[in-house]
Amino acid sequence: MLTANIVLISFFCLVSIIHLLGEFLVEKKKDSAAFLRYVTKPLLMPLLILFYTINNSTINWWIIGALVGGFLGDLFLMIPDPKKKQKWLRIGLFSFLFGHIFYIVAFALYAQKFPYFRWWVIFLALPFVIAAVIIYPKMTKNIGKMKIPVTVYIIVICVMGISTTFLLIPLDSFPISMKMIYLSGIILVYLGAWFFAVSDTLNGIGKFVKQFKNERLFTMSTYLLGQFLLIFGYLLITSDIILTSL
């Protein structure tokens, strides 16, 4: 299992680096490098799905659905749109939207096992709300018919980030080693949600506000890091060694 994980993570990192290189070269007007993007992008989420499935004895299909949403979003956003009709952009946004919703459901269902609420969790959730309030007017200004779907998307991203705080549970009965594993998982999931939100924000700015240098490179690097941290963190908090201690 350890060897398989090392191979999978290494391959995911390699494919990610090649993809980011392709994004960088295309940004530099090296159009011949576009094939790197088209060959590597469809492999990214399937590799994470494989990584998740081989490391979990009980598959959470909401997590699989979230990654499939990312996979479909990746594919639709690759389709050229020379007439600027934004058809594939809208379909891609809906795919990512459902991916976020599936993450929310997965985290909420897991949290149902632990009917506890700690008031200080609000301070971890509040930054997502503040970020959404700041970003919303900038992102939805002068975007016409896309305002409603983008508004919904921003709300769902915010809720997805907040839902990661649902995973915090009382750890008083945990041995110290398991506390460290669980808390590490929580931190990774929380950071993953932030990187994913940053990626979506950069993508939205590039498409609806103004284009900026190396937008695709920054968007994809934060997206890949966010997805990986979400999955790796979730694997830690739902590992067999943790679940048998609850």
Structure explained in plain terms:
The protein is an all-alpha fold. The chain has one domain. The chain is 76% helix and 0% strand. It has 9 helices and no strands. The protein has helices at 2-27, 34-54, 61-78, 87-111, 121-139, 147-163, 176-209, 215-237, 240-243. Helix 4 (87-111) runs parallel beside helix 6 (147-163) and helix 6 runs antiparallel to helix 7. The longest helix has 34 residues, at 176-209. It is globular. The protein starts with a helix and ends with a helix. The relative contact order is 0.12.
The coarse silhouette is: globular
CA-atom Rg in angstroms: 19 Å
Arithmetic mean of pLDDT: 87
Largest sheet: none
Number of helices: 9
Instruction: Give the total of beta strands.
Output: 0
Counting helices, strands and paired strands, the structural category is: mainly alpha
Query: What is the element string, with H for helices and E for strands?
Result: HHHHHHHHH
Helical residue percent band: over 70%
Distance between the first and last residues' Cα: 24 Å
Low-pLDDT parts are none
